[in-house]
Automatic annotation (TrEMBL):
Pfam families: Fasciclin (PF02469). InterPro entries: Adhesion/Biosynth-related, FAS1_dom_sf, FAS1_domain. GO terms for cellular component: extracellular space. Residues 45-177 form the FAS1 domain. PROSITE patterns: FAS1, PROKAR_LIPOPROTEIN. It comes from the Bacteria. This is Putative surface protein with fasciclin (FAS1) repeats. Residues 1-19 form the signal peptide. Keywords: Signal. SUPFAM superfamilies: FAS1 domain.
Length: 180
């Protein structure tokens, strides 16, 4: 009888341990699945260049980024915050400016203009504050101001904000920023 009790107790302990180990395995599998899902989402999110490339309002910007050989750089790890001027913003520049910038002999000037629109780091709209100054990849600073509920980067109005990519964030602006 005593042997039967010991055997029953041993069997109960074994069953409990088996059940606990099965439950832990399920948790590990669920955690692994959650991590894999996150990795897949991050890998399939577009880069800041792909965001601009997918927008019909940014064809001039994409052509300029290509002419300046910045696609590989801006497809890199980042993170980058890009203030992306629209086609209309480029069209508002003095006549001939865009064509001149796109000429191969003006590549350095074009690169300077484009990198003046990019800040290192992931700056969301909620992170921007009136009077804030951010340093661009070009080396000069941009000033943030908030007037009448609108966010300005220098004199450009942010018309679309927080378009997140795998390597940064894009904010759409209504003017081309020109370095001093």
């Amino acid at each position: 009888m005593k042997t039967l009790k010991i055997l029953s107790l041993a069997l109960a302990c074994s069953a409990t341990l088996l059940a606990m180990s099965c439950n832990t395995k399920t948790t590990e599998t669920e955690t692994e699945t959650e991590v894999l899902d996150k990795v897949v989402v991050e890998e399939t999110a577009p880069t800041v260049v792909e965001i601009a490339g997918g927008s019909p309002d940014h064809t001039t910007l994409v052509a300029a980024v290509s002419a300046a050989d910045l696609i590989e750089t801006l497809n890199g790890d980042g993170p980058f915050t890009v203030f992306a001027p629209t086609n209309e913003a480029f069209a508002a520049l003095p006549e001939g400016t865009v064509d001149s910038l796109l000429e191969p002999e003006n590549k350095d000037q074009l690169t300077s203009v484009l990198t003046y629109h990019v800040v290192s780091g992931n700056i969301m709209a909620a992170d921007l504050s009136d009077g804030q100054v951010v340093t661009t990849l070009q080396g000069q600073e941009l000033t943030v101001s908030i007037k009448d509920g609108k966010v300005y980067i220098n004199d450009a109005v942010v018309t679309g904000a927080d378009i997140e990519g795998s390597n940064g964030v894009v904010h759409i602006i209504d003017a081309v920023l020109l370095p001093k």
